[in-house]
Every structure is written in structure tokens, then in C-alpha cells.
Design brief:
heterodimer, A: mainly alpha, two-stranded antiparallel ribbon, B: 2 domains, 76% helix, elongated
Chain lengths: 231, 326
């Protein structure tokens, strides 16, 4: 598989494959957070300017908190997402896929400082390039992983076609290839669907008259899924 | 079993599980979910896991598998979240865990102590003997500012201030000192180099300044200012250094684990020293802002409070929390 996924075995005896997020989405998420933090600073300094010296103290305190703990706060209370990560559809989890806890989040966010060194996140970037899971130094130390949120695509139920038995018995992987094709056909262009179906044309039955190969495969998928007769 | 049959049979279970996930998800302004509503969560979750492994084994369509994987992932996130209970844990940490952790990691604490104080002391004595050495360590501008701060002719000491600035300075100390402690810890991941730099630099800086103040005869204002918070602040810095050294040591010598795992283990262990350092530096910032700067209190009282502070810190770290096993 070319996908950057990481398999994690969970106590229920199955493996979850977590789609690891790369530099670009993470950098963009960081940028969004940076802008939000900047806006927070401006807002706070505007509010605290009313209180004079006391306000200066409050401002310094809150700058400290926002500087170091803004990501921690959101990651812990928002199921691993800062606003920036939410926008980019990524989230932080522990290496074992469990939601991030206080300690891990604090470690990974304190180490941002080391990731920044010697300038402009150089060490963090190098670290991300050197391991499979795009971990920056903070992720390595905290044992965390930044992954993409899964989007669930539900297959459109294609035309209510009658099932069609394949000519010869099919192996499991052949069956799943045919089913996958029929699930995805609605998201392909007609030309692409025909192009793919053409590979199977010689093998398909001709008894179906001039029905297109694509349609025949879809009907076959229906049959494989369990639809034997028109309901 | 064919896929359609399979889907029909379990569809309703999946839907109930989806609803349970929605209920159990933390959210703003959501009423606490009653236990009864989620009593079935674990069995529902196991059922979905079962469905996923069946679907994979039977090579059902990728969409179905993806759908189930997503359900399992969400369930997994909810099922394995940790209880938070922050306040109880902070109390527990201060009374038991922190001093215990310091003793357990005594090796790194002692090494950090040595790296921080030893070169500092050497520079201190050298600067006493050769006063011009101060300009080799601290730039002239800085020396001038520090001299102005502790000039005995001023009625307020420590970073030139008036009485209404105490709170501002509190904010400043927190941001500055705890920030340094965090950097000192984070630098450790670079095979301890960052931590070594911060410990050595700060140790030498303090040593040189200290000697210079004695050379120019400003001891009383200086010591009566730093006495109160020195114990908490210096110990806080040393502990964050110890945490950084431990993290870096896992990079250099991971021992019986893979380097990756060793770093994660070291991070988990050392973070409690960082929490402890935050705790001490908060006290230090408080004392520094509201006590150290007052001039109405006689220097002798301040020295006494300073010494008591050291005794308290040392006693706390060596004796506290011994009764309970972890």
C-alpha cells in the first residue's frame, strides 16, 4: 500500500489503520492556530488595557498561558483537535489510537520549542522526514500521532439492477474487486467506468445482448452481495 | 453470509452504536449523560468490532469496511479515554507523587544540580578574584542595568518598580521563568545539548552577577531581594534541567528498549519533574513579586525567610510522601 497508514492493534483483537497526516495539512493547521492566537492576543491586550498595571500583569499571565497551553487545552478537551486541526480535519491521538491525555499533550507541546530550533522548525521538519509516521520531536517524546479524520463515503445505491451470476466461480479477491468497482462507479466519469470495464469484456457473457460491460459488472456485484432476484 | 444479508442483520445495531457515540462524545453545554443510557456501550462496541473483523475476513466491500472501521475508531476513542479529575490529581501530585518522583530520579537531579551550581561557583570565585571577568560573561549593558536595579540608594529593588507594579511583575516572572524552565526541558531532546546549555549558561550568569554585586558592595539590597525566592526558583530550574537530561539520555543511551520507546518512557517519567518545576516556579514568582521587592522589611528577616525557604524545599523533596507506596 502506498497510503501512509499505521496499523494499531486494539484490545478487541482487531487492527485499526490510522491514516497519518503529513507536513502540509499539519503546517496549515499550525498557521490557522497561529492566526487565532494572534487574534486572542490582540483581544486580550485591548481588554486588559483598561486595568493599567494590573492589566499588564494579567496580560503577561495570559500570554504565557496562550503561548504554551493553547494547544494543550484544546487537544485535551476537544478530542485531540485544536481549531486549526479541526479546520484541516486532522487530530492527535496516542500511538495506540487512544485519545490524548494531559501528560502526552503537555510533552508534545512543550517540545515545540525544540522543534523550532535552530530556526524555523528545522529540527521538527527533519525529524518528520526521518520517520514513517511524520513525527516531530514532540510527537516522538510524547508517543503521539497526528492522523486524518476519517471521512465516511457511503456508496450510492446504484440502479436497482437484477443480479447476474458470474460465468465461472470467482476467488475472494476477484469478488471484492468487482464489488469495489460497483461501489465506486457513481464517483467515476462514464468514460473511466467504461475504460475499466473493457478489461473484463472478453470474459463477460454475451448472452446479455448489447448491455454495456459496466452494467453487467454492476449486476454481478449485486449478485455477489446477495441479490439473486429482482425484489 | 452475503453482504446484503449481513448489512440487514446488523444495521440497527450499528445505528444504536452511532447514537451512543454521539451521546458519549464530550461537547460544550451538553448535559452529563446518565450512566444508564450508556450501560450497553461496551457490548455494543464489542459487537461492532466483531462485525468489522467478520467483514474483513469475508472481504466485504471496502465501503462497508471503512464505515465499520470508522465506527470502531470512534468507539475506541470514547471507550479508552482517561478520567480527568484534575483537582484531585494535582493535590495527589503535590503531596505524594512529586517528591517521590524527585527521589526516584535522584541520579538526574544530582547531575543537573552539579551542572548548574559547580561551574557557577567557579565563575563566582574567579570573578571575586578578577572583577573585570564579569564583562567577559555578561555584556556591559546588562551589567549597568543590574547595577541600577540593586543600587542601595533606591527605595524599591529588583527591576526598578513602583508599588503598583507588583502584579505586573508577577505576570512577568511567570512568563519569563517558567518559559525558561520549559525551554530547558525541551532542549533535552537534542541529546541533552539544549538542557546543558541552559543549565551552564544560567549557572555561570548567576555566579558572575553574584560576585560582581559583592565586588561593588551592593550585597544587602541584592541578597535581601533574592533570598526569599531563591530556593524555589533555583530548585525549579534544576528540576526542569533534570527532566531534560533524562529525556536526552534516552536518546543517547536507550538501554534495553528501542530508542523510540526509550524516549517515550523517559518523556512520561520526566514530565512529572516539569510539573513539579512549574509548581515551584509559581511559588517563586509569587514570592518574588509580592515579598522580595518590599523594602519595609528588615534584611535580616528576609534572610531568615530565605533560609527557611531552603529548609522547606529540601525537607519537602526528601521527606514528603514517603509513607505511601506508589
Amino acid at each position: 500500500m502506498l497510503d501512509t497508514t499505521r496499523a494499531v492493534e486494539v484490545p478487541e483483537g482487531i487492527t485499526l489503520s490510522l491514516p497519518v497526516a503529513g507536513y502540509v495539512s499539519r503546517a496549515l493547521a499550525f498557521l490557522v492556530d497561529l492566526i487565532i492566537r494572534f487574534v486572542i492576543f490582540i483581544g486580550l491586550s485591548w481588554i486588559f488595557s483598561i486595568f493599567d498595571r494590573l492589566g499588564d500583569g494579567l496580560l503577561l499571565l495570559s500570554v504565557f498561558l496562550v503561548e504554551w497551553f493553547y494547544p494543550v487545552f484544546f487537544e485535551v478537551f476537544w478530542l485531540g483537535q485544536t481549531p486549526g486541526k479541526k479546520v484541516m480535519g486532522i487530530l492527535v491521538v496516542n500511538d495506540d489510537g487512544t485519545p490524548i491525555n494531559w501528560s502526552s499533550s503537555i510533552i508534545r507541546n512543550l517540545l515545540r520549542f525544540a522543534d523550532f530550533l535552530p530556526a524555523f522548525w528545522a529540527f521538527g521538519l527533519i525529524s518528520m522526514m526521518l520517520n514513517r509516521d511524520f513525527k516531530r520531536l514532540g510527537d516522538l517524546a510524547a508517543g503521539t500521532l497526528v492522523i486524518h479524520q476519517r471521512e465516511v463515503i457511503s456508496p450510492q445505491s446504484n440502479h436497482d439492477a437484477e443480479g447476474l451470476a458470474p460465468k465461472t466461480p470467482l476467488k475472494l479477491d476477484e469478488q471484492s474487486a468487482i464489488i469495489a468497482y460497483s461501489d465506486r462507479i457513481e464517483r467515476m466519469t462514464q468514460a473511466r467506468a467504461d475504460e475499466l470495464a473493457r478489461y473484463l469484456t472478453p470474459w463477460l457473457q454475451n448472452s446479455q445482448g448489447n448491455q454495456s460491460s459496466a452494467l453487467q459488472i454492476v449486476r454481478m456485484a449485486r449478485w455477489l452481495k446477495g441479490r439473486r432476484e429482482k425484489e | 453470509m452475503r453482504q446484503e444479508e449481513f448489512e440487514q442483520r446488523y444495521q440497527s445495531d450499528w445505528q444504536t452504536f452511532e447514537q451512543s457515540i454521539e451521546l458519549a462524545k464530550p461537547g460544550w453545554g451538553k448535559a452529563k449523560v446518565s450512566k444508564a443510557q450508556l450501560a450497553e456501550f461496551s457490548s455494543q462496541y464489542r459487537l461492532v468490532c466483531y462485525c468489522l473483523s467478520l467483514a474483513r475476513e469475508r472481504q466485504y466491500s471496502p465501503y462497508l469496511i471503512q464505515f465499520l472501521e470508522n465506527l470502531v475508531f470512534q468507539g475506541h476513542q470514547i471507550f479508552y479515554q482517561k478520567r480527568l479529575g484534575v483537582f484531585r490529581r494535582i493535590y495527589q501530585f503535590i503531596l505524594f507523587d512529586f517528591p517521590n518522583q524527585v527521589r526516584q530520579q535522584a541520579k538526574f537531579v544530582w547531575i543537573a544540580t552539579a551542572i548548574f551550581y559547580f561551574p557557577g561557583l567557579i565563575v563566582f570565585f574567579l570573578t571575586l578574584v578578577f572583577p573585570e571577568l564579569i564583562y567577559a560573561v555578561v555584556d556591559a549593558d546588562m551589567v549597568g542595568r543590574i547595577e541600577a536595579m540593586y543600587d542601595p540608594s533606591l527605595d524599591r529593588i529588583g527591576r526598578e518598580r513602583q508599588s503598583d507594579t507588583d502584579f505586573m511583575m508577577f505576570g512577568f516572572y511567570i512568563r519569563n521563568n517558567i518559559g525558561i524552565a520549559f525551554q530547558c526541558f525541551a532542549g533535552g531532546i537534542l541529546a541533552t545539548l539544549g538542557t546543558l546549555f541552559y543549565l551552564l549558561y544560567n549557572g555561570i550568569f548567576f555566579g558572575a552577577i553574584d560576585a560582581h554585586i559583592i565586588n561593588i558592595g551592593y550585597q544587602e539590597t541584592f541578597y535581601s531581594f533574592v533570598a526569599g525566592h531563591s530556593s524555589y526558583e533555583l530548585t525549579g530550574i534544576v528540576l526542569s534541567g533534570a527532566a531534560g537530561l533524562q529525556l536526552g539520555w534516552a536518546v543517547i543511551a536507550p538501554g534495553a528498549y528501542s530508542r523510540k520507546q526509550a524516549i517515550v518512557n523517559a518523556g512520561r517519567k520526566s514530565i512529572s519533574l516539569v510539573y513539579g518545576a512549574i509548581f515551584l516556579l509559581l511559588i517563586a514568582a509569587f514570592v518574588e513579586a509580592f515579598w522580595s521587592s518590599t523594602t519595609s522589611i528588615a534584611p535580616n528577616v528576609k534572610y531568615t525567610v530565605g533560609i527557611i525557604g531552603w529548609i522547606v524545599v529540601i525537607a519537602y523533596l526528601t521527606l514528603m510522601g514517603r509513607g505511601r507506596r506508589q
